[in-house]
Amino acid sequence: MHSFGYRANAVVTFAVTILAVTCAMVSLSDNFNSPSPTADVKVLNINWFQKQPNGNDEVSLTLNISADLSSLFTWNTKQVFVFVAAEYETPQNALNQFTSVTACSFVFVAQVSLWDGIIQSKEHAKFWIHTTNKYRFTDQARDGPFPLYLYDTSLLMYITITSSSIFLLVLAIGNNLRGKDYNMTLHWHIMPKTGKMFADKIVMTGYYLPQDYK
Amino acid sequence: MGWIADSVESIRSLQIRQVLNQIVSLGMIVTSALIIWKGLMCVTGSESPVVVVLSGSMEPGFKRGDILFLHMSKDPIRTGEIVVFNVDGREIPIVHRVIKVHERQDSEEIEILTKGDNNFGDDRLLYAHGQLWLQKHHIMGRAVGFLPYVGWVTIIMTEKPIIKYLLIGALGLLVITSKE
């Protein structure tokens, strides 16, 4: 009955159970932390603003990012992944190419990450950085050689159902950034030592791109 | 001499019962593991609810051998989330972070670009030839939970199959020989 195997089995089972319960409790304890992070993103300069050969707008920004994320750190925090993204919406209208009457409209939502960083300790969680965008800030709608109405099959379906005549997306999709108002969002993704991951963001509004290429 | 035959018969029947009992308990173990796995698939909505990190491309957040719990919900995928995706022509799914999203509102049409935290550039080199974006059907799930080191068990077992067979053999022997 009380052989070596039996005892070993009991000890291992008990140890694994305790470990699992400890991990779960540690992860649950994160819920008691109510963080109050602050962030501010300033666009200091538009370095250049162009239309690429493929028709998509691209912009280069100089940013000043300051944030205090130290309240996000708990004893279960391994690191915080922080990034700044530009978010904007583009309404698109599909027009009848013969009568120029709007047939249907869509809103395209874009989130473009501009800069990111990894914070590994609470001491480094209050930071200030002056940087150009690390990832390309490009508008995007079509990468293939086809216009969107052929490329996007569900849209094609919708259009053919709407009317028997041919509709085209007359607005050149992909160069929507001129004069665009967009939001800057500072996101954080808390990666724990064990358990559940948390993510949240601060949205900053009122950013505009210039009307003209530069 | 009838009592000898009787007792032999009773021992034999006992052994048969015991063997049957062991087979049933073995079956219970296998089926309950299967039930847990399939149940997790239902709850999380992901075809593989638990994945093991195999590469160092997400370091220092995720190291080789860590376990991720996936969830596949209806919510649209957003930048910053860590997703597990399949690329056509690649057997092993990849765990990376979303850095760009372009989507059409009120539809499922979405284009996603990913990058490993520890990689210098984005994942376009990893995608299928000529592929620039991930679509919704490539995504297997988003990572919601994390457990360190536990995945080493599976890594060791897939890399050294002999250990797997030894372990299965030993466990099988234990189940068969154990009395109650």
From TrEMBL, chain A:
The chain crosses the membrane at residues 7-28, 155-174. One of its GO terms (cellular component) is signal peptidase complex. It holds the Pfam family SPC22. Its main location: endoplasmic reticulum. It is found in: Endoplasmic reticulum membrane. It is a single-pass type II membrane protein. The keyword Methyltransferase does not apply. GO terms for biological process: protein targeting to ER; signal peptide processing. Belongs to the SPCS3 family. This is Signal peptidase complex subunit 3.
TrEMBL record, chain B:
Residues 37-142 form the Peptidase S24/S26A/S26B/S26C domain. It catalyses: Cleavage of hydrophobic, N-terminal signal or leader sequences from secreted and periplasmic proteins. One of its GO terms (cellular component) is signal peptidase complex. It holds the Pfam family Peptidase_S24. Transmembrane segments: none annotated. It is an enzyme of class 3 (hydrolase). It is found in: Endoplasmic reticulum membrane. Signal peptide: none annotated. It is a single-pass type II membrane protein. Keywords: Hydrolase, Membrane, Protease, Signal-anchor, Transmembrane, Transmembrane helix. InterPro entries: Peptidase_S24_S26A/B/C, Peptidase_S26, Peptidase_S26B. Belongs to the peptidase S26B family. Catalytic component of the signal peptidase complex (SPC) which catalyzes the cleavage of N-terminal signal sequences from nascent proteins as they are translocated into the lumen of the endoplasmic reticulum. Specifically cleaves N-terminal signal peptides that contain a hydrophobic alpha-helix (h-region) shorter than 18-20 amino acids. NCBIfam families: sigpep_I_arch. This is Signal peptidase complex catalytic subunit SEC11. It comes from Zingiber officinale.
